[in-house]
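S.,

As promised, the iron/sulfur cluster run. Input:
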Amino acid sequence: MQYPINEIFYSLQGEANFAGLPSVFIRMQGCAVGCAFCDTKHTWELNPATQQSAQLVAGKISEHSDNWAYFSADEILYEIKKYSACRHIVFTGGEPAMYDLRSITEELHALGYTTQIETSGTEPLRLSDKTWVTLSPKIDMPGHKQILAENVARANEIKMPVGKMADIIKLKQLLAQYTINTQLIWLQPLSCKETPTKLCIEQALANNWRVSTQLHKFINIH
Ligand code: SF4
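Predicted complex:
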């Protein structure tokens, strides 16, 4: 199995339940959801013209480059082991659920790591049963991808990007279809600006939800 990777880097998880935890991030290339607010648009296309060798992508922060490379599971593990203190691995993107991650996540758990996926919930999840699923719902986006019910049921937390009240309404419409512990729901302001942050705080207080600020933006790390 070969996985298309945009970047592999070591940093602090900035969002939701694991905020502050040292993590190796595996940013995968490819996403068909098409969110207008996406801050990783450089990961959308698997463009043969920007394919690189694994050696060129490994260990580098891509700084929004659309360069990517195929990595085997062994090559990913080799990169992870460079960060010997780290025990938490985050699969992000792009949309990492486009790829079958069951064997690599199971292998990571067998080696003593914890794993997490950040997903829009629009692709079937192929993961270790132990992988923490952060579902960030992307509703009515240009790619017309639907959130799968099985993924909402599997999610360990729901992290909703919020820019305006319409996003809260969409979240409530989604939640109305499921029974979800409200304390597993995070509102994440789309920017550090006052308006979305205030809206998230007000709505969290009103609904017993949580607020996820993007820690990495406040402390200025990748
Ligand atoms: S699902 Fe994520 S990576 Fe894909 S377009 Fe939306 S924000 Fe970007």
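The CA atoms of residues 8 and 104 lie 15 Å apart. The chain has a mean pLDDT of 93.

- D.
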